[in-house]
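Below is a filled-in request sheet from our internal design queue. Each sheet records the structural input a requester submitted and the sequence that came back. We keep these sheets so that new team members can see what a complete request looks like end to end.

REQUESTER: design group, bay 2
PRIORITY: normal
MODE: inverse folding
CHAIN LENGTH: 402
BACKBONE (tokenized):
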């Protein structure tokens, strides 16, 4: 990544997120081409980074969208992703969201419970429409990732077990208002081992075959997202081996393969850049305090997640410290017990691998405006979301006049 963080800081102030759009292109193309032996749809998981310019960039490359709210569906449509490339997942879709999804005629609604299927059927009937259905199967497989981002075990809230899925497909087949269209499975995020994915895909492919035997022919097999990225020194799943193992499991099935990567596409493209405000020592504990905080990038506080951190100065004398923000929480840290050089006021600090689940999980806690987002493409930088002002933060509030 060849981005001049200092020039961007002078131009846009700090903190900011910067995304290397050339890296996003590379990641998308790598995955897309690994499936070239078969019809495929890469449905980008919008939740990872839902900035309109990011989604538009992927739309221009041909990506579809995996969405978990009607808001995400509308973002995808707004930047030109055609409705026939949009999938809507999630365990708790409201009636209003289901209605809008049907009216917008998206590719499939990814249904995650028997109760939800009944709601979709009723709503489709009222609208006089046929709902294209995909069912999210929970294969009860341990994805070997952080427990908070594991989704494919029965103890997780996602999807339905195989037997329930089968009954739901039969309900679809027998309904005038439901069309069994796809099958879906997503076992977790930041996956670095292929075997759990292989095991899950095998279970799903088996179900597709069993359904075929009872004359339920699906058109799409969606293997979810989850491919891990480099935060530290992870050994990643090879994309070619990934796609081959999926294609092997699908052998003999006439279905389009769908996958829904989020982090893989955008994670390593993004850097969160913040600047040093102060240093202090409490007893013998050193703290480096920066202007970014947990409300801007919550992954370290929420998952104890590791992000590589670099202080952009020439000091070589490292010592142990905690890198923390101004938010009024002891959990407001980017790293604990890390070796950083002595810093000066306004030194920049780069926090890497922040392109996924960074800005999208940001909040306004402590009445802090969300930071600027910048794209770099072909060496050119562009502001793609301006920094929020105080006026933005209070714009929706009304004074309670007594
Ligand atoms: C249904 C579904 N698809 C795709 C994703 C994207 O995951 P990732 O960013 O790990 O690729 C998620 C999030 O875990 C998800 O729940
Ligand atoms: N927010 C998580 C990923 C969740 C994936 C969506 N199910 C992270 O930052 O790693």
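RETURNED SEQUENCE:
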């Amino acid at each position: 990544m060849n981005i001049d963080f200092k020039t961007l800081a002078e131009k846009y102030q700090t903190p900011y997120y910067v995304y290397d759009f050339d890296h996003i292109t590379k990641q998308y193309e790598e995955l897309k081409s690994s499936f070239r032996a078969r019809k495929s749809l890469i449905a980008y998981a919008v939740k990872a980074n839902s900035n309109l310019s990011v989604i538009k960039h992927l739309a221009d490359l041909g990506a579809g969208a995996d969405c978990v709210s009607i808001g995400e569906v509308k973002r995808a449509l707004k930047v030109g992703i055609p409705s026939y490339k949009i999938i809507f997942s999630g365990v708790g879709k409201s009636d209003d969201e289901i209605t809008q999804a049907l009216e917008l005629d998206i590719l499939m609604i990814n249904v995650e419970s028997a109760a939800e299927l009944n709601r979709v059927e009723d709503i489709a009937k009222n609208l006089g429409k046929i709902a294209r259905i995909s069912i999210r199967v929970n294969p009860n497989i341990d994805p070997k990732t952080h427990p908070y981002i594991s989704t494919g075990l029965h103890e997780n809230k996602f999807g339905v077990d195989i037997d329930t899925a089968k009954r739901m497909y039969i309900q679809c087949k027998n309904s005038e208002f439901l069309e069994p269209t796809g099958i879906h499975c997503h076992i977790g995020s930041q996956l670095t081992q292929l075997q759990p994915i292989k095991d899950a895909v095998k279970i799903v492919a088996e179900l597709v075959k069993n359904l075929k035997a009872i004359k339920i022919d699906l058109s799409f097999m969606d293997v979810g997202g989850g491919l891990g990225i480099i935060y530290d020194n992870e050994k990643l799943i090879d994309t070619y081996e990934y796609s081959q193992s999926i294609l092997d499991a699908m052998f003999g099935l006439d279905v389009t393969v769908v996958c829904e990567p989020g982090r893989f596409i955008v994670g390593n493209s993004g850097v969160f850049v913040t600047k040093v405000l102060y240093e202090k020592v409490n007893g013998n504990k050193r703290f480096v305090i920066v202007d970014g905080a947990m409300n801007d990038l919550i992954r370290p506080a929420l998952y104890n997640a590791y992000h590589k951190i670099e202080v952009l100065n020439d000091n070589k004398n490292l010592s142990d410290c905690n890198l923390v923000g101004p938010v009024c929480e002891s959990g407001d840290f980017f790293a604990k017990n890390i070796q950083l050089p002595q810093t000066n006021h306004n030194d920049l600090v780069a926090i890497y691998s922040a392109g996924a689940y960074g800005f999208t999980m940001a909040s306004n806690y402590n009445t802090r405006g969300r930071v600027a987002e910048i794209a770099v493409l072909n060496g050119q930088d562009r502001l793609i979301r301006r920094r929020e002002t105080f006026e933005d933060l209070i714009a929706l509030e009304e004074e309670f006049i007594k």
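SHEET NOTES:
- The domain at 35-261 is CATH 3.20.20.10 (TIM Barrel).
- Residues 45, 48, 66, 89, 151, 186, 189, 224-227, 260-264, 356 surround pyridoxal-5'-phosphate (ligand 1) (CB under 6 Å).
FILED BY: M.R.
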